[in-house]
Amino acid sequence: METEQLKIFDREKNPIGVASREEVHRLGHWHETFHCWFISSEEGRDYVYLQMRSDYKKDYPGLLDITAAGHLLAKETVHDGVREVEEELGVKVAFQDLSSLGIIDYSVYNGELIDKEFAHVFLYNCSLHFNDFKLQAGEVSGIVRTEFKQFASLWIGETDEIEVEGFYVDNVGNKKNMTRIVTKNHFVPHESSYYEAIIHGIRTNMTKNQLPL
């Protein structure tokens, strides 16, 4: 993965060339990513789905993250980003079924990693069961969901912990159900402004589609 070629940009989103993924994160080049958040409504409750990153991941192992996300390669368009969903989750999604939340730019500094992203962010309103997910070994170790109200309360500071439910795959390949209390420390440390933008986008989408909040 470190040799993958990515388009790089200046702060104003002007393309300035191509660089390897390793160089992008080492030197802090702005680059494009694809983020897809799964949401659903069930029995009057709205949910947000999260992936649990594999313990074998170099960055942020075992932490909760965007439902599916990845880098856009140099020769890819935003439409090609849906491959990340099928690769990571085993769920085939059509680009036209996604709702765009626009581009969110943000930076994360973690030791020698400098991650500056122009993230193309989308919502997928799904009606899936946990058994519908076929996770990519070595990348994703579980899928959980939490009520959207809880998720929002956590990231706007109204509560310190929330409950998630779902499943994980252990180190020998066994699938196990789980319910757990988590805090912000259990999430990949994207900027708080990023999570706040996601919350606003989900609320706006639900209102537009007249879904319960």
Features:
alpha+beta, 41% strand, globular
Structure description:
18% of the residues lie in helices and 41% in strands. The protein has 213 residues and is an alpha+beta fold. The longest helix is centred in the C-terminal third of the chain and has 17 residues, at 192-208. The model has no long low-confidence stretch (mean pLDDT 94).
Q: Give the termini separation.
A: 39 Å
Tally of helical runs:
4
Estimated share of beta-strand residues? 35-45%
Q: List low-pLDDT spans.
A: none
Q: Please tell me the overall pLDDT.
A: 94
Order of H and E elements: EEHEEEEHEEEHEEH
Shape field: globular
Q: List how many beta strands DSSP finds.
A: 11
Structural category is: alpha+beta
Main sheet: strands, sense, barrel: 11 strands, mixed
| Helix percentage | 10-25%
Rg computed from alpha carbons, rounded to a whole number of angstroms: 17 Å
Outline the secondary-structure elements.
Layout: E1 5-9, E2 15-20, H1 21-27, E3 30-42, E4 45-53, E5 64-65, E6 68-71, H2 83-89, E7 99-110, E8 113-125, E9 140-147, H3 148-155, E10 162-169, E11 175-182, H4 192-208
Parallel strand pairs: 3-8
Antiparallel strand pairs: 1-2, 1-3, 3-4, 3-6, 4-5, 4-9, 7-8, 9-10, 10-11
Helix pairs in contact: 3-4
Entry summary:
The chain is 18% helix and 41% strand. With 213 residues, it is an alpha+beta fold. Strands 1, 2, 3, 4, 5, 6, 7, 8, 9, 10 and 11 form an 11-stranded mixed beta sheet that branches.
